[in-house]
Amino acid sequence: xxxxxxxxxxxxxxxxxxxxxxxxxxxxxxxxxxxxxxxxxxxxxxxxxxxxxxxxxxxxxxxxxxxxxxxxxxxxxxxxxxxxxxxxxxxxxxxxxxxxxxxxxxxxxxxxxxxxxxxxxxxxxxx
Length: 127
Prior knowledge:
This protein is mainly β. It has strands at about 5, 10-15, 20-25, 30-40, 45-50, 60, 70-75, 80-85, 95-105, 115, 120-125.
């Protein structure tokens, strides 16, 4: 049974940093591309970024209140874990953050393309 379990969310002041983790089990982690999504109150869930397996290629959302340049995704295949490092946080980053896994090397931005999802972790940024 595949499980993705996020952790590390919490309350942080604007301008601060936070790292959330996603531990995977029940799949061959090193063959999955991992994505991060978020859902703010009253909004649709949106793509944040992704990290392909193998070469470590990343892609970050570059629209609206962009996370590009502030957020970094990394993975530790030995620990079956993917991380989302968030710096220079803004109140607009407040959301539930989800990790997701998809087989293959392509970083996909459509959430219905992903095979597995975690339950999410709440990140709240105070002003």
